Amino acid sequence: MKRTVYIATAASVVLMLGGPVASAAAAASTAGSATASVSAPARADATAESAVKAALKAYPGVVESVDRDGSVWHVDVITKAGKHAEVQVDAATGTVTKQERDNDDDADRHAPLLAAKVSAAQAVTAALKAHPGTVRSVDWDDGDGRAAYWDVEVKTTGGKTQNVHIDSASAKVLSSTTGDNDDDN
Q: Pairing relation of β-strands 149-156 and 96-102?
């Protein structure tokens, strides 16, 4: 009798504190199943697109670059006034973890980016349409005297790394090259 009371009490505490996963575990243990196992639902990591959305919500402006470094997305954002911030987004949860703002930036330096017709998010969409896979980084390139473009690095579904240049005015693919497969995640 005491054993049943202890199991029922423990199950109640687990249910109150643990939620749905603990509920399933408690149900399995009170049913007498010694081999029951409960696993947490699969977690999808934050994509470049969701990291951009989170960063822009925390620091409104225009994205200059997005880069995943291990468990963190680094998103560089430029405000309409030309101010710069690096926003860090947790790659597992998609939440903003840190913002570092620079107040010394020159608005003129960022004028081409701020005037671009194609955003980083639109460049990602165009690159993924051309090469399905997972975006690893997005960078604004002012073109060094030529037309500005977005450089999008995609790890394709086939495992190759594609460097895709997207026109900043039309979202068309300007060029695409296969790079080395230096997985840094």
A: unpaired
In this structure, the number of other CB atoms found within 10 A of the CB of residue 20 comes to 11
- Residue 158: the pLDDT is 87
Q: Dig out the tokens for 125 from the structure.
A: 């969409």
| Whole-number pLDDT of residue 71 | 93
For the cut 60, the answer to whether the pLDDT of residue 83 exceeds it is yes
Q: State the Cα–Cα distance between residues 20 and 175, nearest whole angstrom.
A: 49
Three-state SS sequence of 21-78: HHHHHHHHHHCCCCCCCCCCCCCCCCCHHHHHHHHHHHCCCEEEEEEEECCEEEEEEE
The string of pLDDT tens digits covering residues 41-58 is 344 688 999 999 999 999
Task: Report the distance separating Cα 139 and Cα 84, nearest Å.
Answer: 15
Helix axes 120-130, 48-58, angle to 10 degrees: 170
